[in-house]
Write a structure and sequence with these properties.
Structural class: mainly alpha
CATH architecture of the largest domain: Orthogonal Bundle
Order of helices and strands: HEHHEEH
Strand order of the largest sheet: 1-3-2
Shape: rod-shaped
Helix content: 55-70%
CATH class of the largest domain: Mainly Alpha
CATH topology of the largest domain: Arc Repressor Mutant, subunit A
Distance between the termini: 92 Å
């Protein structure tokens, strides 16, 4: 039969082993979570940077651009582009339900407007 001292020693040894295991487990878990969060954040920022790259401007039938393409070209929002349209600063054409802009007319309008206002659009 074990004495009380031997039982306490075994119990302390067991507690030490469990404590060491728990610490190793928590360290491993923490590192895994950190790596996962870092990977997710890196993927998020890569995707965000990819979306910020200007889309390649593809002409639609002889030099015409869509609203999105003009907004990217001028580095403005669609709302601002719409305001410029209403103010007559940027000429456009309606083809069915689509609004199209002539690239040369947009660039010319920018030159004229920036000379008039003393600032670029």
């Amino acid at each position: 039969m074990q004495t009380q001292t031997e039982g306490k020693t075994v119990l302390k040894s067991y507690q030490t082993d469990v404590s060491a295991f728990v610490n190793q487990f928590l360290t491993l878990l923490t590192n895994t979570v950190k790596e996962s969060v870092n990977d997710a954040a890196q993927n998020f920022f890569n995707e965000l940077n990819r979306q910020k790259e200007p889309a390649q401007l593809t002409n639609i039938a002889d030099g015409f651009l869509t609203r999105t393409q003009v907004a990217e070209l001028l580095n403005i929002s669609i709302v601002t582009l719409h305001r410029y349209q209403k103010e007559g600063l940027i000429p456009y054409r309606r083809v069915g339900r689509r609004i199209l802009f002539s690239r040369s007319e947009v660039l010319e309008a920018i030159k004229i407007t920036s000379k008039r206002k003393g600032a670029k659009i």
